[in-house]
Design a protein that fits this description.
Blueprint: H1 2-6, H2 33-39, E1 43-49, E2 73-77, H3 95-121, H4 128-149, H5 152-156, E3 159-161, E4 164-167, H6 175-190, E5 195-200, H7 221-243, E6 252-255, E7 265-266, E8 269-270, H8 288-291, E9 295-298, H9 318-325, H10 342-346, E10 356-361, E11 364-372, E12 377-386, E13 409-419, H11 438-453, H12 465-468, E14 479-480, E15 483-484
Parallel strand pairs: 1-2, 1-5
Antiparallel strand pairs: 2-3, 3-4, 6-9, 7-8, 10-11, 11-12, 12-13, 14-15
Length: 493
């Protein structure tokens, strides 16, 4: 929901920022939990990836940068991991557009070559000046698009400390060590004051770069090796909290932003994880496999160990939870969709504060769930679902992720209804013949959807074409543009 209210949602087919040098990003009027805690006197650090934009109008305005959104320290990647970041991997950033532009270039070059041959053989009456002019236009066309797409790794795969680019392009193999060193150092520097540390891991995202120490360690291939390394990294950060006597004073939360990426494959090898019994995966706004993620909390002495809570919550709850723990207040001038998890975690509340949750794919509402507290049943209504291909596979193989709209989506009228409390795999859609309350449940969820839609206000789309395209004057760069290149000493393995 936060993405819909802030304009950080799909537009013109784009579902994420494509460039560090785009002008879209998290609007400056948004209030982050880092901003609230910073105002409460907390040190606030972000280590890892950001992918919420960098600049608006000039290379150094940093309007979308973490330091402009409440963090007082940033070390990491202002973008996200993509295949282009690892030499030798197939292109990923706007690969379809890139392929189309290369096809147009080849066709135009072939056309100019045909004219030149015709001129040479006397079949075509055209001046050599005209032939050279056409060739120049084709060359300019090629240079204009290749200037961005041909250097994706250099433009997007960069490492920053605060506002400064310190590695361009970044060396992925050394990032696990760098991030661990930075996280431990941040804890050491701030152990005598309240601090917020947001570690936004590059694991376990393709291209699954893993240090030699963990290669082959898992029985589940490269993905498993990457998970093993992530597990080690998280363990080392938790160890640092213990070493500095902070274990019982620190609220720790581990989670993910989406389910496993089913379409990420290397031949017959799965690169994007597995979602167990849950249907679908990353990029699917409605199916459980795309949106049901782990939430693991740790606060010794405050939260009882080993307790499992079977209640529908949301990543939107992170904001009010962190704000409450930090002694701040959520903004009162806007709709806040999340609810603090503190009562649920401490056992003072039996149920989640969410009666309804609305699941978007980009700007399209794909599904909604109703936690009917009286009966304990958890209903899920699907209004749109992606069309899997090959049919019945549970994913959109051959594409990066399933589409949110258009020909690749099925609109359901009447909608699909599932009882997740009895069918968490969403394998058996209910019908009036199998569920006597079918019409009543669909109608009640429909009312909630209409009430929810009345709370939405139009906002500038951050992923519009004008915001998403590469703009050379916004490109973060170390050195003189376009000769952007720098590096830092690599840590030993």
């Amino acid at each position: 929901m936060g993405t819909v209210r802030s304009g950080m949602e799909a537009d013109d087919g784009y579902r994420a920022l494509q460039w560090n040098a785009g002008s879209g990003g998290l609007p400056t009027n948004e209030t982050t939990f880092a901003r609230v805690l910073q105002q409460q006197g907390y040190a606030t650090g972000l280590i890892g990836k950001w992918h919420q934009g960098v600049n608006c109008e000039s290379r150094n305005d940093h309007c979308h940068h973490p330091l402009n959104h409440g963090f007082d320290y940033f070390y990491g990647m202002p973008f996200t991991l993509v295949n282009d970041c690892q030499p030798g991997r197939p292109p990923e950033v706007d690969a379809m557009t890139r392929s189309r532009l290369w096809q147009y270039t080849q066709m135009a070059a072939l056309g100019v070559l045909t004219i030149a041959v015709g001129k040479t053989c006397g079949f075509i009456s055209v001046s050599w000046k005209g032939v050279l002019g056409a060739a120049s236009l084709v060359f300019l066309f090629f240079v204009s698009w290749y200037a961005s797409f041909g250097f994706v790794r250099r433009w997007n795969c960069i490492l920053m400390r605060d506002h400064d680019v310190i590695e361009q392009p970044m060396v992925l193999e050394s990032m696990a060590g760098h991030m661990l060193r930075e996280a431990v150092s941040y804890i050491e520097r701030n152990k005598h004051r309240p601090f917020l540390l947001f570690v936004s891991l590059l694991h376990v995202h393709i291209p699954l770069v893993t240090t030699k120490r963990f290669l082959g360690k898992s029985q589940h291939g490269l993905y498993g090796d990457n998970v093993e390394e992530m597990d080690w990294l998280v363990g080392e950060i938790l160890k640092a909290l213990e070493v500095h006597g902070l274990k019982n004073m620190t609220f720790t939360y581990f989670t993910s932003d989406h389910g496993g990426h089913l379409e990420a494959r290397d031949g017959h090898s799965q690169l994007g994880g597995w979602n167990g019994i849950f249907r679908g995966g990353k990029g699917m706004g409605g199916w459980e496999g795309g949106i049901r993620v782990p939430g693991i909390f740790r606060w010794p002495g405050v939260l009882p160990a080993g307790r499992v809570i079977h209640e529908p919550t949301s990543l939107m709850d992170v904001f009010p939870t962190v704000v409450q723990l930090g002694g701040g207040h959520v903004p009162q001038d806007r709709v806040i969709d999340g609810h603090s998890l503190v009562p649920l975690l401490q056992g003072t509340a039996e149920h989640s504060a969410h009666e309804f949750l609305f699941h978007y794919c980009g700007k399209y509402l794909h599904a909604a769930r109703w936690h009917e507290k009286d009966s304990g049943r958890l209903w899920k209504v699907h209004y749109m679902t992606p069309q899997f291909h090959p049919k019945g596979t549970g994913a959109c193989y051959g594409q990066g992720v399933c589409p949110c709209s258009g020909d690749g989506v099925t609109q359901h009228s009447p909608p699909l209804l599932f009882d997740l409390s009895r069918d968490p795999s969403e394998a058996w859609p209910l019908a009036p013949s199998s569920e006597p309350r079918y019409h009543a449940v669909v109608a009640r969820v429909g009312e909630a959807v209409e009430q929810h839609r009345r709370t939405l206000s139009p906002v500038p789309p951050q992923f519009s074409l004008s915001n998403i395209i590469w703009k050379p004057w916004l490109q973060p760069c170390c050195g003189t543009f376009p000769l952007c290149m720098c590096g830092q000493d690599r840590d030993p393995q």
